[in-house]
Specification:
Helix content: 25-40%
Structural class: alpha/beta
Distance between the termini: 70 Å
Mean pLDDT: 89
Number of domains: 2
Number of helices: 7
Largest sheet: 5 strands, mixed
Strand order of the largest sheet: 2-1-3-10-4
Strand content: 15-25%
CATH architecture of the largest domain: 3-Layer(aba) Sandwich
Low-confidence stretches: 1-19
Radius of gyration: 21 Å
CATH topology of the largest domain: D-Maltodextrin-Binding Protein, domain 2
Number of strands: 10
Length: about 230
């Protein structure tokens, strides 16, 4: 009895971290979806919410071998899909781009490690220029460093409606045959079922769409801030 009481008192003295559940170890992907800066994007926000929904703190790790959960691309039957998007291209309203084939030999802005880069090179013989984030790639278009910016249709269709982008509203149609499906993968069947349950509930309740919209807005805002900073110099 006395020993048990001592253990409880020691844990209380150590503070809340000692009483936390086991951390959910998550690995972030090399390419960040809807990145507003070099470090901020959709994935960390989503994974922190998933961990919170499971009653565990999130712990970000570098190696997939050390991770309980990792981001995977593809549409596996058992995966917990959280994001679907197809590549689209945004260019100047009077830019003269009539089709994707018009990007041949042209510089195109993409974010760092974007999967769209290899597609642009092999399929359209374009020259992708990488930027630190999606927001930075958008500003590359405004600076005239590329003929178009290529990113997810989820983002670019929204950007094209904003007043500050009225000179850049020409969208090439999304390439549905190159659509990306992003999922949360784990080797633990029980954990996968828990994550699937969470995402299914969030999809039905609108929370997943709301989170995606939040990061679309964040990218748009950071691009606005970057553009405003450039205008001041």
């Amino acid at each position: 009895m006395f020993r048990s009481l001592c253990v409880v008192l020691c844990l209380a003295l150590l503070g809340p971290p000692a009483l936390l559940a086991e951390p959910l170890r998550v690995q972030l992907p090399q390419y960040r979806t809807l990145s507003s800066s070099e470090t901020e994007s959709l994935e960390p926000a989503l994974l922190e919410r998933v961990a919170e929904g499971l009653g565990r703190p999130a712990s970000f790790v570098a190696s997939a071998q050390d991770a309980d959960v990792r981001v995977a691309e593809g549409d596996p039957a058992q995966a917990a899909i959280y994001y679907r998007a197809a590549p689209a291209a945004l260019s100047a309203t009077g830019g003269g781009l009539g089709a994707w084939s018009d990007l041949q030999g042209q510089p195109v802005c993409v974010s760092r490690d974007s999967p769209h880069g290899s597609m642009l090179r092999t399929r359209f013989a374009a020259h992708p220029h990488e930027y630190a984030s999606t927001a930075h790639a958008l500003i590359g278009l405004k600076l005239g460093e590329c003929r178009a910016v290529v990113d997810d249709d989820v983002l670019l269709t929204e950007i094209a409606t904003l007043p500050e982008w009225q000179r850049y509203r020409h969208l090439l149609p999304a390439l549905d045959d190159a659509k990306r499906h992003l999922s949360l993968a784990t080797d633990d069947p029980d954990l996968l079922q828990q994550i699937n349950t969470l995402l299914t509930q969030w999809k039905a309740g609108g929370q997943l769409a709301e989170l995606t919209r939040q990061w679309v807005d964040e990218v748009a805002f950071q691009a606005y801030v970057l553009a405003d900073t450039l205008d001041c110099h």
